[in-house]
Design a protein that fits this description.
By secondary structure, the chain is α+β, with helices and mostly antiparallel strands. It contains six helices and 15 strands. The protein is globular, with a radius of gyration of 19 Å. It binds coenzyme A.
Length: 260
């Protein structure tokens, strides 16, 4: 990597200032993550002539084969629109490819700030021009009127793998507010339940988040679990799209949403 170097703990203040130059809430959220043990790991500072101008990085979701997510990606507002973002993103994408990355995802909001306008529009433009394609748009995700756009990019040719469907005893075991959202919830789950999921079980979860003041619920499951969609739809969820080849080639992640 030419202009990227691994982020260290003593970079946190300047990196947070870079993020804060665009958005105070993102800066706070990012700082909380960086300050956790190992929180700067897999993050990179973009430097030109010794000056830190940007930050990017990635995370690797568990249970997936060579799947990556881009993490906080910012260029200091004073230095935007000079080609740094494109250079920084090209370098991190190349790094992930060399590390064996198969599929790369990124999430972006469509927030329109009353004063600064569509603050993520440049990012969306850049991602698309670098080869990402929109895979899912969750309307009213972060807040009412603020969508989450999930883009994906293949880094390797697709392998032709046959994934067999399976029946699972999915059981919900908790509800939680999704990070960075205002009252959007999800359910945690495991697949060792005593019996297959029924619409009534889903409704118990819906009632629990309603009691917490939830505005919407977003769920996702591996696409080969063949007995999950019916109870979700019966309980009022709608299909919200698919992240292609998310877990491995041929095994997608199906998303569902319910607006309360
Ligand atoms: C996204 C970001 C990293 C880009 O950095 P940058 O240094 O400005 O990037 P570049 O100068 O290489 O490229 C900017 C591109 O966006 C385009 N652009 C600028 N403002 C735009 C807008 N309002 N709408 C659409 N495109 C826009 C530029 O024309 C340029 O495209 P081009 O190379 O095809 O001409 C930077 O704008 C940023 O930090 N934004 C806020 C944070 C963010 O959105 N992060 C990603 C989501 S978490």
């Amino acid at each position: 990597m030419k202009n990227l170097r691994e982020m260290q703990e003593d970079d946190i203040d300047k990196v947070v200032a870079i993020i804060d130059s665009h958005d105070e809430d993102d800066a706070e959220e990012a700082e909380a993550g960086y300050r956790q043990i190992g929180g700067t790991y897999d993050n990179y500072v973009y430097e030109i002539n010794g000056e830190a101008l940007g930050v990017t990085g990635f995370s690797i979701p568990p249970g997936c084969e060579q799947t990556y997510w881009l993490s906080w990606t910012y260029i200091d507002e004073k230095h935007t629109n000079k080609g740094h973002g494109r250079k920084m993103l090209s370098e991190i994408i190349e790094h992930i490819k060399v590390a064996g990355g198969r599929k790369l995802f990124v999430k972006v909001s469509d927030y329109v700030d009353p004063e600064d306008g569509a603050i993520y529009a440049a990012a969306l433009h850049l991602y698309k021009s670098l080869g990402f394609k929109v895979e899912i748009t969750h309307k009213n995700f972060y807040d009412k009127g603020e969508a989450q756009i999930i883009l994906g990019m293949r880094l390797k040719d697709k392998e032709d793998l046959m994934i067999e469907d399976k029946i699972c005893n999915i059981q919900f075991d908790g509800v939680f507010e999704i990070a960075e959202t205002d009252n959007a919830y999800s359910f945690s789950w495991h697949d060792q339940g005593e019996y297959p999921l029924e619409a009534e079980d889903v409704k118990v979860g819906i009632d629990a988040v309603k009691a917490d003041g939830a505005r919407a619920v977003f769920l996702s499951f591996p696409s080969h679990i063949s007995n999950i969609e019916e109870p979700l739809l019966q309980a009022g969820f709608s299909s919200a799209g698919t992240l292609k080849d998310y877990y491995q080639d041929g095994l997608d992640e199906k998303h569902y949403s319910l607006y309360l």
